Amino acid sequence: MMQVHVEEAHRPMESETSAQSRQRKVLFWAWLILWVAGVFLVNVVALQLGERLGLSLDLTANAAYKVGEETKAVLRNLQKDVHIYVLGTPDRFQGSAYLVQAQRIMDQYPRYSNRVRLTYVDYVLDPTFTSRYPNLNLSQGDILVECGERLKQVRLADLFNYTYTPAGVLAVESSRAEEALTSAILYVTSEDHVRVAILKGNGTADKPAFTSLLTDNNYEVAEVNLSLDELDSSYDLAVLLAPQVDLSEEALRKLDAFLDNNGAYGKTLLYTADVTQPPLPNLEMFLKEWGIIVGDGAVFETTASRTYRYQPYYPAAEYVSETYRDKLRDPSSPVLMPLARPLELAFKARDRITNEVLLQFSATSAVRPSDAGQDFSPSQAKQRGPFPSLVLSSKRLYSSTGFTQARSNLVVSASSAMLDEFSIQNTSLANSEYLIKMLNDLCERKDVVSIPPKSLAGKALSISTAQASILGILLAAVLPLAILAAGIVIWLVRRYQ
Cα–chain-centroid distance for residue 437? Predict the structure, then answer.
């Protein structure tokens, strides 16, 4: 009987233990399900945030993987829908740090505007896509920016700046992916476009780097032969690059009519001189009427610190006017004016024409005459600086109250080589930025952006020739001698203590 009672006494306790065990199992599975669901939910949220906001951290000094404030402002103010087509799959932008950077930049555009759509297109497997653009020569990696009827093609090669290595190999120097893409968006969404006439004939120089610079900055560029074509009012800017043959009177009348614009003004002519030009009496008279005289000979610099790589005929110009200098990202960057001719002002102001020197060669510059012999030395130079190197001549139309109502401009450069590739694409020089700032202002452009290129390499040490010499002496002589002297002093002190 005692045994029976004991077993009956333990039964409620066993039942209670079994219920607690089942309860613990239920709680365990409930917590497990909630934990799995929580992890899944966190991953979904992180994925969505990563696609919309980008959760990667950019530790580069120049924020190379992020779009800048100018681009964000453009995207915020978009009033039209823009579609960006990338001709290639995302894995096409692998294998190179600069390709990865370009893709990261492109992927951010839809995040800052719901009016932007980004689509990667494998156009090799989709022939119907290429049929929509029969007039374009499409290549793998190209980018098409489309808004309504307007279209801008950005080639993959246009996303980068290039330079030659000491071994002569072409290599990527920096990325301009953000600048190229934002400029393309402005191009297709803007109603105001500036047309440029590159004047041909008369042996004019060919400057493809400068033409590319204009195109990259949304100028519509066309070639116009002064002898055969009309330079009509649809063009805002005309460019005459170092003609080797004198212009006819008819061609000069076309230039006069272009700048006069039926009395409305508002046009600009850019002229560049070159040391290889022969005398051009008709063109020189035209320039003199605007108050600018192009002299004979080649300008050279006697101070090494004002030259490019110790080459005296590759002088850097000094900023005279603050108008465009202060618009530069780095006003200390020089403008290179290689193989230049001396300029002179015939007058500063006459009638409705005013002349302003924007850039000049230094007081230590001089001129080598074109007929100088092989034994010419700098001490023989009769003309010495300073000389104007870039002059802005403006003919103004005044209102009845005396304010400028309109103006046409003639910009004369002493150097055509300032537009060469090594001058335009050198990021240590201000040539490209200065020219674009000036032309944007003279053409009264509003829809422009200025986005610096992004380098993924270490920062370049931009120093003058004189600074390089001083640094070389310090590192090669002064510093080793100082270390040697310090070692001798320490040895003597320890020796005789």
Answer: 11
Q: At residue 253, what is the residue type? A: R
Q: List Cα–Cα distances, 424 to 263, 403, 436, 437, in angstroms.
A: 35, 36, 11, 14
CATH of the domain at 88: 3.40.30.10
Same domain, 148 and 224: no
Is the domain of 421 the same as that of 276? yes
CA distance 396 to 354: 8
Structure tokens at 32: 């497990």
Distance in angstroms (rounded) separating the CA atoms of residues 293 and 381: 19
Give the residue from 422, 442, 462 where a domain finishes.
442
In the listed set 145, 160, 192, which residue is the last one of a domain according to the structure?
Answer: 192
- pTM for this entry: 0.72
pLDDT at 1: 43
Torsion angle (degrees, nearest 10) of CA 337, 340, 346, 349: -20
Q: In angstroms, rounded to a whole number, what is the distance separating the alpha carbons of residues 141 and 128?
A: 17
* Predicted confidence (pLDDT) per residue in 182-195, tens digit: 989 998 998 778 99
Instruction: Please state the domain count of the chain.
Output: 2
Per the domain annotation, does 477 fall within a domain? Answer: no
Distances (CA, A) of 307 to 64, 167, 258, 297: 31, 24, 37, 18
Average pLDDT over every residue of 105-109: 94
The type of residue at 290 is W
Amino acid (one-letter) located at 19: A
How far, in Å, are 44, 55, 244, 343, 391 from residue 296 at the CA level?
73, 61, 14, 9, 17
